[in-house]
From TrEMBL:
Gene3D superfamilies: Periplasmic binding protein-like II (3.40.190.10). This is Thiamine pyrimidine synthase. The keyword tRNA-binding does not apply. Pathway: Cofactor biosynthesis; thiamine diphosphate biosynthesis. The lineage of its organism: Bacteria, Pseudomonadati, Pseudomonadota, Alphaproteobacteria, Hyphomicrobiales. Residues 63-267 form the SsuA/THI5-like domain. InterPro entries: NMT1/THI5 (IPR027939), SsuA/THI5 (IPR015168), TAT_signal (IPR006311).
Length: 388
């Protein structure tokens, strides 16, 4: 099979095809791995979080690893699972009770809503739009309408639910855009190899791609989009159970403390992840690792002066997203943001001693490689790869 023929093509993945790709078959414990899974749990004996990307060896989840290393989860029994690379697994596993919390993009969350999954967003990690469009050097444009008639590479067919609203909000006629499911984790390599005209990317991944020799230019959602990004979802019924709700408050407090720790000392948060995943540390190194985490901190923090705290939903942004995807037919019925997103756990999650977390972060002794980095210099060049 040739490189070309091993990639599945579609001229705009139809809804029927999209549902076949992402919804075919039942999720099974073996797909995720037997560790930590169960059909039901009465009181979260072990709380399982499932990744949307099929791997945990990334910097995206730094708040968890930083919080775990610092002991911020206390005696809570928590587990992280990579899940299958199918983009919708993160909601499907939560829906059927084989995981307790997923981290979908808004587009994949809309897939869950459209398919009747009774899930609710409880902690909005992506305060700014993390998603971007990658182009080969010299081929990018700040006018995404130039993508009409062009081909965009995706790692999973499910990612069309991310890309369609992103493009539509920028005035693109999405019926004129073609998609290629180029596979995880090879879609970036496919772009570099001359296939397609652009590819979906996101903050943090930009730095990881550089480490793999993939040097692109980007239309950046953090600079140009008002749409929300990935969020933590749980079964809506769990919020009605007092014990589970109390657990969720404590669990999310651990994440919020990890986020605060990373904001106060980004390099220490990278070291927490690298300690967990030595191969990632070897592949990225201190400078690109710190670059990646700074990109993500910008997304996760957003404009904190206008937020209720870490994880707070901007309901206007979410409502705008739901109206956009209803307009393009990604969902068939209107959705009210307040019905599927809640800030009821945000106060308890942010009720921690920020001075102590800052003291922990400031007191962390960095290794030699990280101590030598100039964080402010890295920040100054964070968006150098944006399309000029």
């Amino acid at each position: 099979m040739t490189k070309e023929s091993s990639i599945s093509h579609s001229a705009g993945i139809s809804r029927r095809y999209f549902l076949q790709v992402t919804g075919a078959g039942l999720v099974t414990a073996t797909a995720l791995g037997a560790s930590g899974l169960r059909a039901k749990a009465e009181a979260y004996e072990k709380f399982t979080w499932i990744s949307p990307r099929g791997t945990l060896e990334v910097l995206d989840d730094y708040p968890y690893w930083a919080a775990k290393k610092a002991g911020y989860f206390g005696d809570l029994d928590t587990d992280m699972q990579p899940g299958p690379s199918d983009g919708t697994a993160t909601v499907k596993f939560v829906d059927v009770g084989q995981a307790d919390m997923g981290f979908p993009s808004p587009g994949v969350f809309s897939f869950a809503i459209q398919n009747g999954m009774k899930l609710k967003s409880v902690f909005h990690m992506g305060a700014r739009d993390t998603f971007s469009i990658a182009f080969r050097k010299g081929e990018g444009s700040n006018d995404l309408k130039t993508l009409e008639g062009k081909t965009i590479l995706l790692g999973s067919a499910a990612w069309q639910s991310i890309t369609d609203p992103l493009l539509a909000a920028q005035g693109v006629d999405i019926k004129k855009v073609k998609y290629v499911e180029a596979g995880w984790p090879t879609w970036g390599t496919a772009l570099a190899g001359g296939q397609g005209d652009a590819a979906l990317s996101w903050e943090g991944l930009r730095a990881e791609w550089i480490a793999k020799g993939l040097d692109f230019e980007y239309w950046l959602g953090v600079q140009n989009s008002k749409l929300p990004a990935n969020t933590f979802v749980v079964r809506a019924a769990d919020l009605e159970d007092p014990d589970r709700k109390a657990f969720l408050e404590k669990y999310l407090r651990g994440w919020a403390m990890g986020l605060e720790f990373g904001y106060q000392n980004p390099r220490a948060a990278v070291e927490a992840v690298f300690g967990q995943f030595p191969t990632l540390a070897k592949n990225l190194g201190p400078e690109l690792g710190t670059t990646s985490i700074l990109q993500q901190i910008n997304v996760f923090r957003g404009d904190m002066d206008k937020r209720e705290g870490w994880g707070s939903h901007d309901m206007a942004s979410w409502q705008g997203f739901f109206e956009e995807i209803h307009k393009i037919g990604q969902i068939t019925s209107p959705v009210k943001a307040e019905d599927v997103c809640t800030n009821e756990l945000i106060g308890p999650a942010n009720n921690f001693d920020k001075a102590k977390v800052k003291a922990d972060a400031d007191g962390y002794k960095l290794s030699e490689g990280f101590a030598a980095l100039d964080v402010e210099k890295i920040k100054a060049h964070l968006f150098d790869s944006a399309v000029k």
